[in-house]
Design goal:
The complex is a heterodimer of chains A (254) and B (331).
Chain A: H1 3-26, H2 35-63, H3 69-74, H4 85-88, H5 94-115, H6 121-149, H7 153-166, H8 171-174, H9 178-185, H10 192-209, H11 233-241, H12 243-247
Chain B: H1 21-31, H2 44-63, H3 65-72, H4 78-103, H5 109-117, H6 135-155, H7 161-191, H8 194-213, H9 225-230, H10 238-256, E1 266-268, E2 273-275, H11 281-288, H12 295-308, H13 310-330
Antiparallel strand pairs in B: 1-2
Classes of the chains: A mainly alpha (254), B mainly alpha (331).
Chain lengths: 254, 331
């Protein structure tokens, strides 16, 4: 794999992870547990789609095969998607929604922070803007994890169950593969060791304040999203999300 | 219009002579176009009517998120997804500040929402219709937000200060939504395939009459209107507003190259207005009574969201109480 191919893959991971999480959040529209949460949850989704669009546009320029951001989103099948498995997991109850958000936000925040110092100027620019949004996302999901963890007996039980349920997907966030290493060595991506340390540091700190237990570092981890091997959920997400462009392939405008 | 058939609880209008001194003072303020504020004295019936009207308006914003939410996961481009989600978010925001305006009258948001979930409070009949194809996202913006604006522009001058100020802000956003909705339809009519054009016409066919029903019954069937007009919480009659809406919408319809399913629609030179056919009032009252295509789905979705989210809100309250205790101990 050339460095440019690695970069394309890396950009698609960033783009797809944001996009699929936003798609999950959009399923909650009109169904959030409070009106204020409708606003907050949509804010996060809007930010993530906006960021994803920036990553897709850069990726599309490098791929240079005539596909634009929309074609990358609406006309790739699951095996071409490079999102983290975490973000495609179902919303379930609000504890699962929030635990998923929190694990992702910690990863996202530290990743973007590192990317804002990337040698690749385009990436640095996109990340510098995105990290401001991710800072707010992380503050919000951390607060909710604490409220749930240290709230009522029921909320504690639910968020602890959610942590346990999703723990097996956290490994993929912080386990580097060849592409992650290549990006780091090229001065483009974050230092994998540092990212892992920062992620655990933040997750343990918030969990402690929330009176929650976190899983083991060496627990069995379910991985594959970054290389296109997904859980069963992604196919269904795409079936919904891509319905119109797929059903009306002759339509050139919407 | 997002409020239909708001009961004023009054049988007939009082003359100034029949009013108590404070009532007369209140009515004179209204007649002089002085805004009534939360701390001012107001007749009980005025307060209750406003609570009904504003809560109905707020409920409409919230329930109104659902027909559009039905397509947000299927929006066909990144741009349309962002627009639609932002529009729905605006509606949640409108709901929030309308509930706040309502709370200045001493009503409680949770109690009013409970009434909605118990089927005791109304919301606009339009949201009980399904959104069946993507063009509905354009047609809802254009026709539904369009009809709402016709009413709300007038309500910017409503006599109750907090409601009037909420309307000013809401109107700005609704006009934006309306233009955005129209653009969706225009793009499809100009550059779309035949299938897309058919979607647009189908959406208009389904939503046209329900949009006209948003203005409520004919003036002579609207027993509460007169009192509301005197209080200036309603400023134009249902039929006047409906006519305004039709007159401004038909040229836009023609520009799209579409039609409405009304064989009686035609320009009346003498009146200077469009004539139009009779609304199916049986359908209107059926929908109001709960027998529209989506009444059941809309309310059960809202009820489920709030009921299943109870533990989340309880957690937030419990956590805040613990934090407060800890802060007190530390001090």
């Amino acid at each position: 794999m050339t460095q440019q191919e690695a970069l394309q893959e890396y950009l698609l991971r960033m783009a797809d992870s944001g996009m699929i999480l936003a798609q999950r959040l959009s399923e909650l529209v009109g169904k959030a547990p409070a009106l204020e949460e409708e606003l907050a949850s949509s804010n996060v989704a809007l930010d993530l789609i906006g960021q994803a669009r920036n990553w897709y546009e850069y990726a599309a320029e490098l791929i240079d095969d005539g596909r634009d951001a929309d074609k990358l989103v609406f006309l790739r099948d699951a095996h071409d998607y490079r999102n983290l498995l975490m973000v495609e997991q179902p919303n379930d109850d609000y504890a699962v929604t929030m635990a998923r958000q929190f694990f992702f936000d910690v990863w996202h925040y530290f990743t973007l922070k590192a990317l804002s110092n990337s040698k690749d100027e385009r990436i640095a620019t996109i990340a510098a803007k995105a990290v401001k949004e991710a800072t707010y996302h992380l503050r919000r999901s951390s607060e909710w994890v604490k409220r749930m963890g240290d709230g009522t007996e029921e909320s504690h039980r639910r968020i602890q169950d959610a942590f346990n349920l999703l723990w097996r997907f956290t490994g993929e966030l912080i386990t580097p593969d060849d592409i992650d290493h290549a990006m780091f060595e090229a001065g483009i991506g974050p230092d994998p060791q540092q990212l892992k340390q920062d992620w655990f540091g933040m997750v343990r700190e918030v969990a402690a304040q929330a009176t929650l237990a976190v899983g083991e570092e060496d627990a069995w981890m379910y991985m594959g999203g970054k290389t296109g091997e997904h859980t069963e959920h992604l196919g269904h997400i795409l079936a919904v999300m891509q319905f119109l462009p797929r059903a009306y392939p002759d339509a050139t405008t919407w | 219009m997002y409020a239909q058939m708001v009961d004023t609880g009054t049988k007939r209008l009082k003359t100034l002579e029949e009013m108590s001194p404070e009532e007369r003072d209140f009515q004179e303020k209204i007649d002089a176009e002085t805004k009534i504020e939360a701390k001012n004295w107001m007749p009980d019936a005025y307060r209750k009517t406003l609570v009904r009207q504003i809560s109905q308006h707020a409920h409409s914003e919230i329930v109104g998120m659902l027909p559009e939410g039905n397509w947000v996961t299927r929006a066909p481009t990144l741009k349309r997804k962002l627009q639609l989600m932002a529009k729905i978010q605006d509606e949640a925001g409108h709901g929030l500040y309308l509930y706040s305006a309502m709370e200045t009258l001493g009503a409680d948001r949770d109690e009013e929402i409970q009434k909605l979930h118990d089927g005791k409070a109304k919301y606009s009949s339009i949201f009980n219709y399904p959104t069946l194809n993507w063009a509905d996202m354009g047609a809802v913006g254009w026709l539904v937000d369009g009809a709402a604006i016709v009413n709300q522009v007038v309500l910017q001058r409503t006599s109750y200060g907090p409601y009037s100020r909420a309307m000013v802000r809401i109107c700005k956003e609704e006009s934006f939504h309306q233009r955005q909705g129209y653009q969706i339809l225009l793009d499809m009519m100009r550059e779309g395939t035949q299938e897309q054009k058919d979607m647009v016409q189908d959406a208009i066919n389904r939503l046209w009459w329900p949009a006209l029903m948003m203005f409520g019954p004919h003036d002579d069937e609207s027993p509460n209107s007169q009192q509301s007009m005197v209080w200036k919480i309603k400023r134009k009659s249902n039929d006047e507003l409906r006519q305004m809406f039709i007159d401004q919408t038909i040229p836009q319809l023609e520009f799209l190259g579409c039609t409405v399913p009304d064989p009686d629609l035609k320009w009346n030179e003498e009146r200077g207005h469009y004539d139009f056919g009779e609304i199916n009032w049986k359908e209107f009252y059926d929908v109001l009574k709960g027998n529209g295509p989506c009444n059941h789905e809309r309310i059960s979705t809202r009820r489920k969201a709030i009921d299943e989210g109870a533990w989340v809100r309880e957690a937030a309250v419990a956590y805040a109480a613990k934090q407060k205790q800890r802060a007190a101990k530390a001090a």
